[in-house]
C-alpha cells in the first residue's frame, strides 16, 4: 500500500492508513481548495466594486458571522441526527450558492447587496457543515489515531489555503472572478457526492436520540463548555485572540493595494505564503501525534502570530511581508491544530458536536468581527495603527493564557493521556 510510505510521519501516517480517513480528507482538501479560491475571488471582487476596506470586511463578515447564531444550533442538530446526511445537505447548499454567485457575475447582475446576502446564505450552511463533518472523525479512525486525524484535518485546510490562492491568482487574472467561483461550486459538489462512500461507525454517524428541544441542547452545550476547567478557558482564549488577530487575513485586498501597491497577483502570493507556512508547521504538529505540550503550543503560537503580524503591517517591502505572512500562517496553524485536537479529545462524546460547533463559531464568527472592526477603523485611521494596537492587545491575552496554563495542561493533557 502506497500509504505505508507515510510511516516516517508517525501518527500522521497511521491516520492516513485507513481507507475512510483517506476518502474523508481527500474530499475535505477538494472542498476547502474551492473555498479558498472562492474567498480570494469574492474579496477581490468586493474591493474592485467598492474600493472600500469596510465593504471587503462586510463580505467576510456576512460569510463568517452567521456562525454566532447558527453554530450552537447546528451543533445540537449534529448531535441528534445522521451527520452524513446533514453534511451532504449543507455542502450542497454551499455549492448552489457559489453557482448562483458565478451566474450573477457572468450576466453582470451581481450587486454588493446581493453578494452580501448570498455569502450569508453560504455562511449559514457552513455553520451546519462544520460540526456535522468534524464529528464523523472518531468513526473513521481508531481512538489512538484520533489526535493525528484531527491534526490531519486541519492540515488539509492549510494545504488548501496554499493550493487555492495558487489557482485563484492566475484564474482571476486571465479568466475573471466567475470561473473561480464556479470552481468552488464544482469542488463542493464533488465533496458532497463522496460522503455516501464513507463507512462510518454507527455511534459516530448518529447523535443521541432527542431528549429535549434543540434550543435546550444548544444551551447545554454552552454550559458544558463554559463549566469545563480546560475547554472553557481554552476556547475563551482562542475567541479573543481570533477577534484581535484574524481580521487581517480576512481583508487582505486593502493591505495588498494600500501598503504594497499590488494587484490580484499580490493577493494570491500573500495568501499562498500564509498557506505555505501553515502547511509546514501543520505537518510538524500532526507528526507529533501526542497531546503533551499541546496547550503550551496553542498559547505560545498566538504570541508569535501577533509579533509576525506587526512585522507584516510595519513594512512596505513586499518580500519581507511575504516572509511575515508565512510565519503568521505557521503560528496560526500551530494554534488551530493544537486547540482543535485538545477540544476533540477532551469533549464528552455526547457533547462533541456542540463543542465542535463552538470551535467553528470561534473560527468563523470571531475573524468576521475582527475583519469588520479592522475594515471600519481602516477607513479612518489607516490600516497600520489599528492592526498594531490589536496585536499589542493580543499579547496581553497571551499573558492571561500563560497564567492559566498549568490548570489547562492538567485537565486537557493529563486526562486524555491517562485515558489513552
UniProtKB/TrEMBL annotation:
Pfam families (alphabetical): MFS_3 (PF05977)
Transmembrane feature ranges: 23-47, 53-77, 98-118, 167-191, 231-248, 268-286, 293-314, 383-402
InterPro entries: MFS_trans_sf, TM_effector
SUPFAM superfamilies per UniProt: MFS general substrate transporter
Main location per the UniProt record: membrane
Mode of membrane association: Multi-pass membrane protein
Localization per Swiss-Prot or TrEMBL: Cell membrane
UniProt keyword annotations, A-Z: Cell membrane, Membrane, Transmembrane, Transmembrane helix, Transport
Protein name: MFS transporter
Amino acid at each position: 500500500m502506497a500509504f505505508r510510505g507515510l510511516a516516517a510521519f508517525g501518527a500522521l501516517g497511521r491516520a492516513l492508513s485507513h481507507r475512510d480517513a483517506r476518502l474523508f480528507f481527500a474530499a475535505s482538501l477538494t472542498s476547502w481548495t474551492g473555498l479558498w479560491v472562492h474567498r480570494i475571488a469574492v474579496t477581490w471582487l468586493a474591493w474592485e466594486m467598492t474600493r472600500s476596506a469596510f465593504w471587503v470586511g462586510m463580505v467576510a463578515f456576512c460569510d463568517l458571522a452567521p456562525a454566532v447564531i447558527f453554530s450552537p444550533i447546528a451543533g445540537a442538530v449534529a448531535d441528534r441526527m445522521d451527520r452524513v446526511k446533514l453534511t451532504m445537505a449543507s455542502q450542497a447548499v454551499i455549492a448552489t450558492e457559489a453557482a448562483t454567485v458565478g451566474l450573477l457575475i457572468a450576466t453582470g447582475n451581481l450587486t454588493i447587496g446581493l453578494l452580501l446576502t448570498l455569502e450569508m446564505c453560504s455562511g449559514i450552511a457552513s455553520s451546519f457543515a462544520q460540526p456535522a463533518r468534524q464529528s464523523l472523525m472518531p468513526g473513521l479512525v481508531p481512538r489512538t489515531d484520533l489526535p493525528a486525524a484531527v491534526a490531519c484535518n486541519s492540515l488539509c485546510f492549510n494545504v488548501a489555503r496554499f493550493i487555492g490562492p495558487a489557482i485563484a491568482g492566475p484564474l482571476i487574472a486571465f479568466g475573471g472572478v466567475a470561473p473561480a467561483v464556479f470552481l468552488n461550486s464544482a469542488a463542493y459538489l464533488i465533496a458532497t457526492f463522496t460522503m455516501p462512500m464513507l463507512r462510518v461507525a454507527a455511534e459516530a454517524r448518529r447523535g443521541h436520540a432527542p431528549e429535549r428541544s434543540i434550543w435546550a441542547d444548544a444551551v447545554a452545550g454552552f454550559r458544558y463548555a463554559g463549566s469545563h476547567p480546560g475547554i472553557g478557558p481554552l476556547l475563551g482564549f482562542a475567541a479573543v485572540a481570533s477577534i484581535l488577530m484574524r481580521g487581517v487575513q480576512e481583508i487582505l485586498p486593502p493591505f495588498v493595494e494600500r501598503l504594497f501597491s499590488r494587484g490580484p497577483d499580490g493577493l494570491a502570493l500573500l495568501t499562498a505564503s500564509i498557506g505555505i507556512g501553515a502547511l509546514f508547521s501543520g505537518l510538524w504538529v500532526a507528526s507529533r501525534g501526542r497531546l503533551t505540550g499541546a496547550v503550551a503550543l496553542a498559547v505560545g503560537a498566538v504570541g508569535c502570530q501577533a509579533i509576525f503580524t506587526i512585522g507584516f503591517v510595519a513594512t512596505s517591502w513586499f518580500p519581507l511581508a511575504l516572509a511575515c505572512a508565512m510565519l503568521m500562517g505557521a503560528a496560526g496553524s500551530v494554534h488551530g491544530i493544537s486547540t482543535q485536537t485538545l477540544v476533540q479529545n477532551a469533549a464528552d462524546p455526547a457533547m462533541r458536536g456542540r463543542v465542535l460547533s463552538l470551535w467553528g463559531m470561534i473560527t468563523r464568527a470571531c475573524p468576521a468581527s475582527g475583519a469588520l472592526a479592522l475594515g471600519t477603523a481602516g477607513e479612518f485611521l489607516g490600516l497600520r495603527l489599528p492592526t498594531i494596537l490589536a496585536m499589542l492587545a493580543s499579547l496581553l491575552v497571551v499573558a492571561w493564557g500563560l497564567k492559566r496554563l498549568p490548570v489547562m495542561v492538567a485537565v486537557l493533557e493529563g486526562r486524555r493521556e491517562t485515558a489513552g
